[in-house]
Design brief:
- InterPro entries: DNA-bd_dom_put_sf, HTH_17, SinI_DNA-bd.
- It comes from Glycomyces endophyticus.
- Pfam families: HTH_17.
- This is Helix-turn-helix domain-containing protein.
- The protein is α+β, with helices and mostly antiparallel strands.
- The protein has one domain: Orthogonal Bundle (Multidrug-efflux Transporter Regulator, Chain: A, Domain 2).
- The protein has helices at about 1-15, 20, 30-35, 40-45, 65-79, and strands at about 25, 55, 60-65.
- The protein has a 3-stranded antiparallel beta sheet.
- Helix 3 packs across helix 4 (about 40-45).
Amino acid sequence: MLATALDRTVRHMSEPGDLLDEVKFLTVTEVAELMRVSKMTVYRLVHNGEIAAVRVGRSFRVPESAVKTYLSEALQTDE
């Protein structure tokens, strides 16, 4: 019975369209390293709404796609 429930759970988690399977979250430190800016700059971007983020407890997690969107928009405005 436990094996069947576990099998169902694993199958459900691997179904296409599961949002969490498609989203990779980054820490503020990882975003700062990726963008080569300070953590304070990332926090400012998050608080100003320039980069989307999710609050988890006392910290933030930033979807990787939000960083890509921010950078691509920044490149377009520079041109």
